[in-house]
Amino acid sequence: DAGVIQSPRHEVTEMGQEVTLRCKPISGHNSLFWYRQTMMRGLELLIYFNNNVPIDDSGMPEDRFSAKMPNASFSTLKIQPSEPRDSAVYFCASSLGAGETFFGQGTRLTVV
Amino acid sequence: QQPVQSPQAVILREGEDAVINCSSSKALYSVHWYRQKHGEAPVFLMILLKGGEQKGHDKISASFNEKKQQSSLYLTASQLSYSGTYFCGTAAFGNDMRFGAGTRLTVKP
After folding, report:
1. Per-residue pLDDT averaged across A5-29, rounded?
2. Of residues B2, B95, B99, nearest to A98 (C-beta)
């Protein structure tokens, strides 16, 4: 398996623009997570899905953030409108149940 | 909700040992340990489930005290490749895993 695949790897956008991050989990995994990592706040859980259903989105910082999982092999995290403070590395991760969680390589987002 | 890790940073010489601690204010279902090198994704080390078990592979092991809601990661005879930031992730219900702030480990020759 190719592991968790995220795209794009790097994204530079202007403030106010919409940003969409994409994730393909490992085939067969039923849990998918979105994390955000910054120096100041560390690794924060934004939202996670079980069997394509959002379970806990309490970590989503604002209404500007939204996440979807239309099927078992694809998820998106959207920021609209983006702001400079959204600059961070966004990781998608997947697992089978509560077992080992595998991380994608991350998307480094820079909002200028 | 986030677990608390200590220490924040450790500097070792090759061959020395280190212990990294992780504690939570909530009852835990599981504890995960990850290592992240600069510019890379976190990599899974081990998972400990409710039941107070101890796990290990090679010279890295961990324990989980369910009653105290604490876990410790033990690195013995450290190698240069052990350098990185270590994170504990804790879950209260199953896979609602949240991470501590991390412990930066530097191993010097």
Report:
1. 97
2. B95
